[in-house]
Amino acid sequence: MLFAGLVLVTLPILIVYVLLQQHIVRGVTAGALKG
């Protein structure tokens, strides 16, 4: 039961982290190319 709760808490954080990471990497590459 504890594990299920842990997964429910961790999964959204992981998804947000991955999405943010991709966005940040794109922004950094775009900034590096421009500047």
Describe the structure.
This protein is mainly α and 35 residues long. Helix content is 94%, strand content 0%. The protein contains one helix and no strands. It has one helix at 2-34. The longest helix is centred in the middle third of the chain and has 33 residues, at 2-34. It is rod-shaped and about 50 Å long. The model has no long low-confidence stretch (mean pLDDT 91).
Supply the key terms.
35 residues, mainly alpha, 1 helix, 94% helix, rod-shaped
Task: Give a concise summary.
The protein is mainly alpha-helical. The protein contains 1 helix and no strands.
In terms of topology, how is this protein built?
Blueprint: H1 2-34
Strand content: under 5%
| Cα-based radius of gyration, to the nearest Å | 15 Å
Assembly form of the protein: single chain
Helix content: over 70%
Sheet of most strands: none
N to C succession of SSEs: H
